[in-house]
Amino acid sequence: MTAAVFFGCAFIAFGPAFSLFIFTIAKDPLRVIILIAGAFFWLVSLLLSSLVWFIATKATNAQDLTLQKNLLIFGSIFSVILQEVFRFAYYRLLRKANEGLAAISEEDGPPLSVREMAYVAGLGFGIMSGAFSMINTLSDSLGPGTVGMFGDSQYYFITSALMTLALTMLHTFWGVVFFEGCERKRWWVIAVVLCVHLMVFSLSLLNPFYVASILPVYAIMLLMAVWAFFSSGGSLHNITLLWTCKTRLKPI
Amino acid sequence: MSTSDSEEDSYNERTALVASEIPSVPSYQQDPDQPQPADMEPRRRTVAPEPAAEPPSLDRSAVEREPVDLEEEEELPLKYGAKHVIMLFVPVTLCMVVVVATIKSVSFYTEKNGQQLIYTPFTEDTDTVGERLLNSVLNTIIMISVIVVMTIFLVVLYKYRCYKFIHGWLILSSLMMLFWFSFMYLGEVFKTYNLAMDYPTVAMIIWNFGVVGMICIHWKGPLQLQQAYLIAISALMALVFIKYLPEWSAWVILGAISVYDLVAVLCPKGPLRMLVETAQERNEPIFPALIYSSAMIWMVGMANPARHAEPTNQDTGSSDEEAHRSEGSALARDWVEPETQVSSGMNRSYSTEDDLDEEDRGVKLGLGDFIFYSVLVGKAAATGGDWNTTLACFVAILIVSVAVRKTKCWRRK
């Protein structure tokens, strides 16, 4: 039972991200490095925001639960803002590195387009964020025992896995949209991404009322997927070409 | 101390091994498409000979290398650098996975029974925090001075061409690693999973494992088998360090070793630098048993003698560890560290030698680096029990190792 839960939740949470990694990233060493560097940037943003939260909790009364919960909410909002700031910082770093590479590369143009970097960076953020959310839960799900005995929801593991999957995909789409917005100097895109991120966070506060949190988050994820698709050059024309296998799609 | 000797011996052995044992047949050339080693290596090489007043051969080789290195650097900067970085990510990740899996499942390596290495004599069972901190700093000072002394002794031995001594020492250390430590490890795994086993079967397993390991590391063998053995040895050594180093001392030592590593490799008077330069001067490869290489090139009678250095580098790491083991379980570990560090330093300086054929050149990483990273991640896994910490350490190590290699590359340039 515990092994089944472990494997099921692991595959739900990490299956798509893992397949994306295997099929699109693993072959190209440059993409792997950008992925890991993206994961590192997310880690640093989390570290800094957790420092803020840690100091706040240590400086206040640990017994006051409402205050602690509010501090947690404040810490998480700060973390969301910091994650987007670091996403922007990573964008700047990648742009600079790409220009440097293009200048010395023997091929025409940079080795990686901004859209590729956007996708890889977003996936890096997503994988790290998902891993940090899910790994301890997965390790606990191996047992012995399970959740739901003291009135907690018995769906904790599976909803955690679903939420992790949604968050990983959302980070990927946000990366694509964000970088595209920065490239086109559309700064409102950054603000929209930040707001959507905050919205997803506040929806997660509705747990354990999972219907109210998981379903809207997935709806948002689908909307973001459509936005990312159109933002990175996709169109209805491309989709029809894909379905009818008429002609090769142009690389982005 | 014998441990010091072993350290220095390991370095000498490597060169001795290279000089005496260069195979006449190219063996198991893997991955002919491998690009040249990371950009930093060429840079390191060009930088290495410059500060020292080396004989003309060295200057010539440096001059020869420079234009080629610059060319290569300009042409294939990030692409090959990235590929090399990935080629190192995989074994480092594997080693860390083995160490973390063992730490999480076999409780032997996290049990503290008060036993400590003689290199860390000050106990951490003190009453106050200040005392504990002082003890760990003192332990670190002792450990690092042992490492420095051993490295210098090794350089001295190498300079005076005591190759047989080094050779023998490396073999002894690999023996200890491959037989004794793996026997202990196997025993603990059986205990953890409550598997019954008889002595004749264990003897067969360990005998086969050890002999094949010795052959692969010190002589010829399939590249992947050799890489697997080097990873296994590094993991075993890291586990021993995790078990026997007290908590705070381990963290302070890790910090001090990274500083020492940078200093020893980059300083003009650093022992590792001198070792590399002497080896370059003599056109000899460095010890094979202490360096993990992603490509094996065994070529004899080449115009560019520098190339010999690369294949031989693979073995030095293991010999160091063996030397340590012969000293005694507690002592053995320390020897590995300096040896591997020296080897890693030497490795780096040698990796740039191959100007001729980029594709044949793999990347090299000293086993000391493997052990160092694995100890870090293993300690994180053992201390917290929290998977987030372990994962964070893993990602940080990958990024920092890339950054450090690039920095060393640029600084030596």
UniProtKB/TrEMBL annotation, chain A:
Keywords: Membrane, Notch signaling pathway, Transmembrane, Transmembrane helix. GO terms for biological process: Notch signaling pathway; protein processing. It is a multi-pass membrane protein. It is found in: Membrane. It holds the Pfam family Aph-1. The chain crosses the membrane at residues 6-25, 32-56, 71-90, 117-135, 155-179, 186-203, 209-230. The keyword Membrane applies. GO terms for cellular component: gamma-secretase complex. PANTHER family: GAMMA-SECRETASE SUBUNIT APH-1 (PTHR12889). Potential subunit of the gamma-secretase complex, an endoprotease complex that catalyzes the intramembrane cleavage of integral proteins such as Notch receptors. Component of the gamma-secretase complex. Belongs to the APH-1 family. This is Gamma-secretase subunit APH-1.
UniProtKB/TrEMBL annotation, chain B:
GO terms for biological process: amyloid-beta formation; calcium ion homeostasis; membrane protein ectodomain proteolysis; Notch signaling pathway; protein processing. It is a multi-pass membrane protein. It holds the Pfam family Presenilin. GO terms for cellular component: endoplasmic reticulum membrane; gamma-secretase complex; Golgi membrane. It comes from the Eukaryota. Keywords: Endoplasmic reticulum, Golgi apparatus, Hydrolase, Membrane, Notch signaling pathway, Protease, Transmembrane, Transmembrane helix. One of its GO terms (molecular function) is aspartic endopeptidase activity, intramembrane cleaving. Its EC number is 3.4.23.-. It is an enzyme of class 3 (hydrolase). The keyword Transmembrane applies. Residues 29-39 have a biased composition (Low complexity). Residues 1-69, 308-330 are annotated as: Disordered. The chain crosses the membrane at residues 85-103, 137-158, 165-187, 199-219, 226-242, 248-266, 286-303, 387-404. The keyword Ion transport does not apply. It is found in: Endoplasmic reticulum membrane; Golgi apparatus membrane. Residues 1-10 have a biased composition (Acidic residues). Homodimer. Belongs to the peptidase A22A family. Probable subunit of the gamma-secretase complex, an endoprotease complex that catalyzes the intramembrane cleavage of integral membrane proteins such as Notch receptors. The PAL motif is required for normal active site conformation. This is Presenilin.
